[in-house]
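Structure in, sequence out. Go:
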């Protein structure tokens, strides 16, 4: 049996990886779209300041944004 075969956590990770790939490809194909990097600078500043609450808020904003973009991409006909 392959490592992690049948493990729902591993399978969930594979599904998340596929969704991230879909979202990243769509953003890279859109000129001028900074959605992949928009949160990075703020997150680095929060981490360097040891501001856990700010880092959590920024991470959540990024995840919500990514989820919305991926849902829109998957729903649109290609």
């Amino acid at each position: 049996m392959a490592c992690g075969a049948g493990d729902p956590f591993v399978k969930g990770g594979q599904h998340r990886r596929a969704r991230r790939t879909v979202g990243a490809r769509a953003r890279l194909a859109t000129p001028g779209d900074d959605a992949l990097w928009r949160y990075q600078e703020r997150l680095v500043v929060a981490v360097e300041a040891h501001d856990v609450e700010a880092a959590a808020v920024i991470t959540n904003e990024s995840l919500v944004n990514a989820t919305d973009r991926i849902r829109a991409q998957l729903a649109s006909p290609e």
